[in-house]
Design a protein that fits this description.
By secondary structure, the chain is an all-beta fold. It starts with a strand and ends in a 5-residue tail after the last strand.
Length: 370
């Protein structure tokens, strides 16, 4: 283990495994992973690193697997960071800042803040960063605690390298939509349940509806959108049809439906996460069961990878049935983020009854022949 010079309470080790390069982070008093993003071709993760007195430091860890090195960047302007990028590739962070009476946040550059003045804190937007169109960074919020509140979209506009303006707009019903941004056309698509049918809509950055079509698939209830298009095939992921199996639902541009078994994992599926898109056609989705968690890599409805923690700490390739011991304890997936059209990383942590002191990062590369 190598100790970080900037924080003596944190040590790390990078090793090669059959699954890819593995980073093990060990904290003396505790560590929590908060958010993650690809910073160029390197994973960047935000962490709460605890101290002996039970307080914690917020820090960003930039991981260089090739050089077996970590750059440590302390965060001093706020807590609970959430990363996002601008359309021209600049990195920003949303931070919760101190306010005597209310929760307030600021959105500022991730690094290089010497010549900026912190903006006036504003009310937090509870949604997630989805991606960018040509002019805007897009955030999307579904209120899980309400059956009536409409979904919201936040669009951040820029002037050169500075945030110019943000707009928050409500989206007309139905609510509880899945959202997809086409990386090539920059189109924003939504899919929502409208009584007995599903509504596929294309909207602009300010929530104005550009096009809408109804899709009759009452038999299915897709959990995630892998791709939405009005001119090409759309792909949805469903596990509600058969509780232990994933199905791919393909919707043609004419609205025809075709559902096929993707993989049966043999255990009841509890949930799936929002897909992370490697390319327009390829995405990664994590899932959980009573026993553990795993992830699927899918390209145009075809399964490329399927990894699952069948037994605690052991990750099994469901396509080859090969198993790899990754930890001595059961693991949970914290984040999955894409780096480029060939690689991604998975952040995991051991499930323990005590404060977690380890964090694991797996760097994987896709096979070009897949």
């Amino acid at each position: 283990m190598q100790t970080l010079l900037q924080n003596k309470n944190l040590a790390f080790q990078i090793t090669s495994t059959p699954l890819g390069e593995k980073l093990t982070l060990k904290s003396r008093y505790g560590i929590n992973g908060e958010d993650a993003i690809a910073y160029g071709d390197k994973p960047l993760i935000s962490c709460n690193i605890y101290k002996e007195n039970e307080t914690y430091d917020v820090a960003y860890l930039l991981i260089d697997f090739a050089q077996s090195n970590i750059d440590y960047h302390p965060e001093t302007d706020g807590i609970m960071p959430n990363f996002f990028t601008s359309p021209n590739g600049q990195y920003f962070v949303d931070l919760l800042v101190y306010h005597p009476r209310k929760e307030r946040c600021v959105q500022i550059p991730l690094f290089d803040r010497n010549n900026i003045t912190l903006p006036k804190p504003a009310k937090p937007f509870l949604g997630d960063f989805i991606g960018c169109t040509k002019q805007y960074s897009i955030f999307f919020d579904v209120d899980l605690w309400s059956d009536s509140k409409p979904d919201k979209i936040k669009s951040i506009e820029y002037h050169q390298t500075q945030i110019k303006k943000e707009r928050i707009n409500k989206i007309s019903k139905p609510r509880d939509n899945r959202i997809y941004i086409d990386q090539e056309s920059n189109e924003i698509h939504l899919l929502g349940k409208d009584k007995r049918q599903w509504l596929h809509r294309q909207i602009n950055e300010l929530s104005k509806i550009i096009y809408s079509r109804s899709i009759d698939m009452e038999e299915y209830y897709p959990s995630q959108v892998l791709k939405l298009s009005l001119v090409n095939d759309s792909y949805l992921l469903d596990y509600h049809y058969a509780k232990s199996a994933f199905y791919i639902i393909t919707i043609s541009s004419e609205g025809n439906i075709d559902a096929k078994l993707l993989i049966d994992i043999g255990e009841e599926i509890f949930s799936t996460s929002e897909p992370q898109h490697i390319t327009n056609d390829t995405s990664i989705t994590s899932f959980t069961t009573e026993s553990g968690s795993g992830w699927l890599t899918i390209r145009n409805g075809i399964l490329l990878e399927a990894y699952y923690q069948k037994t605690p700490g052991t990750i099994t390739d469901l396509l080859t049935n090969e198993s790899h011991q990754f930890s001595s304890e059961p693991l949970a997936i914290n984040q999955i983020k894409t780096i480029n059209d060939n690689s991604y990383f998975v952040v995991l942590y051991p499930i323990t009854d005590e404060k977690n002191k380890d964090l694991l990062v797996l760097l994987r590369h896709l096979n070009h022949n897949q």
